[in-house]
Amino acid sequence: MSLCNYLAADKVAEVETSATQEEQEEGKEEKRMIIFRKIMDKCLNKIMSAGRHSQFKNCFKELRTANSGAFDSISEQLMNHLKANIETEISLMIKQEDLEYFFDTLDRAVEENSSRPTPAWRPSGEPSTDCRDHLMAVKSTYRDQLKGMLEKIENENKSLEDVILPQREKVEENQKMLPKKAEHLREAAELCEDFNMSRLQEQAMALVND
For the whole model, what pTM was predicted? Predict the structure, then answer.
């Protein structure tokens, strides 16, 4: 057996083993993952059918005429390698993107909502109606923000009222006392006018001289 044939046989065996494992795990997979694998298989079959043996014969007639046995062997190995590489890339994509988890999650979400009494939301075609719930949520958020601002302002006003009100009461009390004090000053001024200031000065000087 040539090295190419050995490698091809080894690769085919590896793919068959992987396919067997996938078949064993297929029973554990959810519906959408199974559908996805079937779609990938269908795409792969279409790709492989485009490179069927007859296409090689038509494109490389001279090579096949020179050595038909080697040509058929090489073309078959090439197709096997191509198929194996594509299957490997598909499996790698499923693993890297974690498609099994996302498809399983989607299946569970659909199953959980399948028994809901009302159908799932769908656009009605009227933007104003479709946006109502979204706008209501936005407006509710603004309303809550405004309530918070109003509460903050009310608390600040209450604090200012507690500080200013006693001061205002004190000012009002002083205003009530001003007429009495003014009256006392007026009476004192009248007494000073009636009193003989010159005589008071003489008595003061006499006291100083004594």
Answer: 0.40
